[in-house]
Amino acid sequence: MIAPSLLSGALLLLLLLSACTQSDWPHLDDSPEARVARWAVEQGAELSGFRIGRACPTCLRGVIATADLPEGHVIQKIPMTLALRLGDTTPAIPAEHARLLLEGMHNDPAFNASWHLFWATQPTPDELFTPELYTDQHLEMLQTPELEELARDRRDSTVAVYSGEYSYQAYSPFAEVVPPDRVSLETFKYMSSLLNSRMFGLHFTGLAEDELVGYLVPVADFFNHDDDPNASRSNDDEHMSVFAIKPIKAGEAITFNYFQGVIHRPDMSMFFFGFVAEREEPLLAAVDLPTFDPDNVFAATPPDDSMYDDPKCEFVKCEFVTWQEYDRLAARLKAAPPSDMQDEAWLENASVADGRLRILLQYRIARKRALRNTMNKIAAHLGGHGQHPNRDRGKAAAASESDLGGIEAIEARLARWLISNGALLSGFSIGRECPTCLRGVVATKDLAPNEVIMKIPFSAMIRFPADQTGYPAELARSMLLRMHTDPAFNATFSLFWQAHPAADEAFTPELYTDEQLDNLQTPELEAMARRQRDTTEEVFYGSYGEPPYAPMIEVLPAVTVDTFKHAAAMLNSRAFGFNCDETETEVCTHLVPLLDLLNHSDDPNAERTGDSKLVTLAATRHIRRGEAITHNYFEGVIHRPDMSMFYFGFVAEREVPLLPAVDLPDFNEDDPFAATPPDDSRYDDPDGEFVTAQEHARLSARLAAAATTLEEDEALLAGGTVKDWRDNTILRYRIARKRALTLAIDKIAAVLGLGVERAVDADVEHEL
């Protein structure tokens, strides 16, 4: 079978000219497939009426009819003496066959001399995708526990056969059979994958009815699979034949079914062959069927899902058209975040370039659509979703939802989830106050002072224990461990994760580059940000803590350093501190769904409070319909531009800029996040302790130490050459800082009469 996935690799060489005729091929073609076909003919094979090519420009490459073929026409007849027997009838995984095959390939020159043409027609490692080759990330992306278990077992068993640790059969380490510099573990996995997707199970005289023997059959594996094929295969003790089972037109693709009754399901086709067939009406995955048997996972399944199509039970049993089955399917769908729409958006995103990841997304989309379609069928047969036994609860949720206005997709689903878990949400939607305003929480009605907008129970939040404090990276480590080891945690909070910014939408020190650190032009801020970023990396790599944390590569190999930094950035910018319990003696870090969608304001119109059971958001003054609802995330701290950028990645625009916290005369490096005055009015008082020549000199020196001037930064911003929004944020911070420094210097100079001296000093600095 020519792989329908990952078609761009080196295997599929030399597209054959569509003008080739039956007599031309394989004789006038020098592609690997044609050469192996000629070799097969020399060994007694009979080939008739086909070539290798495409039935259309966008079709998969495979076997194409070169003439009209009648039903019964024999297309191939391959002597069994030409086929490669892979072992006896003992049930075995492909890795065991691969072991024998690789030993022969590397220790028997005559074997390679006979089969070298065949190997030239096979896919390269980057053109295959079966469980033997899965990474931990691939396994997690399946979002299907039974399929993940099957695939993980296949992959781990392959490794065990190679290492000599396979529990079902005693093998010596393969490195003792063939040196690892000739067959590495990756090569061994590749050969196992090749056999998984390429070998035929054939039955012969003398075998029990259910016994099959594994074979590689040259030329026969050129055909593509189809659930509705136009050809079939059979074998006796002497030959394996492929023949037309219906008339086939010249130019039509010739296909057969590789695994009847099994691989029409998306999980099975991906498991065995690494592809997911496109269907107008997707079929349920085999593992999602109500009849799935974990003890017989590859059993044949019905050709379609019509078991859900007969509401009157006239032709099939109605045992599956029930609300119980609806709830079972709903639970399986809920446990597979995010939605198929989000998966589809990722699939359409050109940034997902890895062919294997795209196949996994295709599978997830097909599976989720099939689950949803089936649920809708059941509900329609039973009178509609409103007839569900839990409809009273559903009506209550709908009534509460109706007060939320036009919340967009993910946030709307998150709101529904919160309501179902006891939250009260009233009088807002997610949107913008104006076309150019930040997206956030907007009032959908006039709100009175003290009117409750949100009440969110602690049971619907993520709480970190009081002893889990420190850098966001440490909390991120704890959270990622739960996400990757506790399916119930993900199932509960899947919608919450989807409502968070993607990695390219976040900007806190965890994500800073060295260049961005240098561009801050503020030594204290640079030191703080560098420490935060470096500590994040140290936690990831296992060099931070006493004793040090285990490296993430050992604990969660699927989590990359970039993913880890993103999670730490989310904790840095999204966490809230509330009392851990009724004693109010300790504060715990919390992640609070929906509350973190509010935008910050130094002059907010809402306030959050928390007791041991609920977090409440209430209006602090009249809020008009259409107005943004805001609160202060870190009172007394993030009104300063360095602190707002450090915690949240933004710099607020101000008519009168404020000095960064690190530029204040009483900044304490041992307590850098301490509350600061609400403004810089200390420089307005002629008798103030900081209206001095010394403070004037200190601020002037800090301004002069910056690598660029205010005017240069303003010109750079106006020129529009700084395209990256993160770099643009740093530039805006520098401008805000230099304007604030200049303003403070000028205020002091005006009070002390230093204007002329400062002007002379400025001229000297400029000349220098």
TrEMBL record:
Q: Which organism is this protein's natural source?
A: Chlorella vulgaris
Q: Which residues form the signal peptide?
A: 1-23
Pfam families cross-referenced by the UniProt entry:
SET (PF00856)
* CDD domains reported for this sequence: SET_LSMT
What is this protein's record name? Answer: SET domain-containing protein
Q: Which GO terms describe its biological process?
A: methylation
Q: Tell me which residues make up the SET domain.
A: 45-259, 426-634
> Can the keyword S-adenosyl-L-methionine be found in this entry's annotation?
yes
Entry's Gene Ontology molecular function annotations: protein-lysine N-methyltransferase activity
- Keywords for the protein's UniProt record, in alphabetical order: Methyltransferase, S-adenosyl-L-methionine, Signal, Transferase
* Superkingdom of origin organism: Eukaryota
User: In its keyword annotation, does this UniProt entry include Methyltransferase?
Assistant: yes
The UniProt entry, under InterPro entries, shows: Rubisco_LSMT_subst-bd_sf, SET_dom, SET_dom_sf, SETD3_SETD6_MTase
